[in-house]
Amino acid sequence: MKLEVVAQKLGLSFEHGVPSGQIRGYNYDVVNVSIDTFVKVPMMTFVFERTLTKEETKTIQKAVGMQQIRIESVGLNNNAVIIMFRHGIKNSDKHQAFLEKIADAFKELGLKSLNHCPFCGNEDTDSIRVIKGSVIKVHDACAKSFYQELTARVEEEEKSNDNMGKSLVFAVLGAVVGMIPTFVSIVFFQYMFALLYALIPLASFYGYKYGKAPKKSWVPIAVSVISLILVLALHFWLYNAIAVEEGVTLSYAMGIEEFSSAFYSDLMTSLLFLAIGIWISWRQMYKQTTGAIKKSFSGLNK
Fold it and tell me: What are the extents of the domains in the chain?
């Protein structure tokens, strides 16, 4: 849903491209939050002046109810909470009561909305930035300085190849481990599950991370290629094993129409399921790369 429509439905102000409101002294913004690889839904973000503790997070979760909250870092570390709309996106009495219940929990915890520059701590702000979808008061000089420092660190990391060989080895090992559930489901249950294929690139990516090499923008592509190679290797190995079991070579078996038809059919299914798996896991991988970090803070450099 477009944020302009959300602002109209809830009667919120709409400045800097963000619907903003207030409940009992607590400011909140409505941001589109990813719940899947390509699916976003509007949620409320409350940004506080300090880091939320685990106990405070539990108290807020209790006030919200069954819907899972998310903790985000907006200017400061783990200082924001993202909450789903419980009663739909409409300005109803139930929605208002829900907001008041949340605000009461904030007040109990002694929380305050962020009203100072998160980069220096001073209140005499002179500019506005949209950070991760939330409108934040800042000093223009502080925001630009922070972005320049962040960019310098990211660019330095992008140039580094420290631990690259080790990370690529771990990426291959991770993909092998991630492929085990798929192997078991095919060999022992004769089923192929698309969701299991998502574990292959994800496990490969976390294997790469374990090696502590820089998480460059091309890493998701690299682990996708590694996953593709291993899936193809598994497919050829399985069909070669079937041919050997029948006492013939794979090349001979491919001359049999029934065998070759099954070979190509399963190959297409494997590639399709791997593509779905990469699609499912792509955002989870990409958001941790240096390119994604630079993009998420690009609004600071205005």
Answer: 3-138, 164-294
